[in-house]
Design brief:
about 180 residues; rRNA-processing protein FCF1 homolog; ribosome biogenesis; PIN-like_dom_sf; two-stranded antiparallel ribbon; alpha/beta; Rossmann fold
Length: about 180
């Protein structure tokens, strides 16, 4: 026997108290907002973020071999699942020498994951990986990576995290490397 289907009620709305209801006190009543007219002759100001001069038509001139690749925690974990050698697959992808970089925050995040991710920790401690020290408080790796990439446009970010990729796509001139279909 299956689950009993409930008929959906149409045109049902949550009931709201009107502003003229006597149960409302005077201070709770919403005041009618008065729109002030905009002066058509006034100069309209908009704050537009200034892009660095190293970007020419959104192309980053600071990027070049040997590529420095900021590696995220989940990128290491996915490379283990896909049975990829991290440095070798990066070089196969970019056809150039790659220097994987790992920040203290990412290292701390891997250490916090515990015994289950000890292989990822061993990969992260590989001497081919360059360690980048962090000077900020906290160990939230995503904020750390976004902040570092915003300051220095010389990195490629390697991540599988959708939220982090969405945040980095908003920063012009920063390429993203990710794992899909086991490569």
């Amino acid at each position: 026997q299956g689950k009993q289907k409930k008929a959906r009620k149409y045109a049902v709305m949550k009931r709201m108290i009107s502003l003229r209801d006597e149960r409302l006190k005077e201070k709770d009543r919403a005041k009618a907002s008065v729109k002030k007219k905009e002066d058509p002759s006034a100069i309209k100001e908009r704050e537009v973020p200034q892009h660095p001069s190293c970007l020419f038509f959104q192309y980053n001139t600071q990027l070049g071999p040997p590529y420095h690749i900021l590696v995220d925690t989940n990128f290491i974990n996915f490379s283990i699942k896909a049975k990829l050698d991290l440095v070798q697959s990066m070089m196969d992808c970019l056809y150039a020498k790659c220097i994987p970089c790992i920040t203290d925050c990412v290292m701390g995040e891997i250490e916090k994951l515990g015994q289950k991710y000890r292989v990822a920790l061993r990969i992260a401690k590989d001497p081919r990986f360059e360690r980048l020290p962090c000077m900020h408080k906290g160990t939230y790796a995503d904020d750390c990576l976004v902040q570092r990439v915003t300051q220095h446009k010389c990195y490629i970010v390697a991540t599988v995290d959708k939220e982090l990729k969405r945040r980095i796509r908003k920063i012009p001139g920063v390429p993203i490397m990710y794992i899909s279909r086991h490569r």
